[in-house]
Amino acid sequence: MWRRSSARRNVPFPVLRNAEAFPRVDLCIIGGGPGGIAAAMRAIEYGKSVCIVESGRVGGADLWGGTVPSKMMWAIADVVVVVRVASNRPVGLRTATAAGAAL
């Protein structure tokens, strides 16, 4: 994303010239798609420092192309069912609606 916006303004693409100035990380993930983001989140849960290298938009082509949002809607619908079933039991859950009746 930075590359596209900088190209319009004739700003040079940032280049790492001094490796000592770059912070050390435990894990460098190539690709900021769903798998890369999931791997980064898991590494962070284990206390690791992470960087993600992505050439395009973070989220990957599937997210911006339309395949992940439909899968996310299925996952959200499954969670809603679980919450509705669990809310009939004394576990202290509260339900809320997102996007009103459209959901």
Give a summary of the structure in a few sentences.
With 103 residues, the protein is mainly alpha-helical. The chain folds into two domains: 58 residues, no CATH class; 28 residues.
Radius of gyration: 20 Å
Q: List low-pLDDT spans.
A: 1-8, 91-97
Report the sheet-strand fraction.
5-15%
Q: Structural class of the helices, strands and pairings?
A: mainly alpha
Topology, element by element:
Elements: H1 2-9, E1 27-30, H2 34-45, E2 50-53, H3 60-65, H4 67-86
Parallel strand pairs: 1-2
Features:
flat; 2 domains; 103 residues; Class-I_Pyr_Nuc-Dis_Oxidored
Would you give an account of this structure?
By secondary structure, this protein is mainly alpha-helical. It has 2 domains: 58 residues, no CATH class; 28 residues. The protein is 45% helix and 8% strand. A two-stranded parallel sheet has the order 1-2. The longest helix has 20 residues.
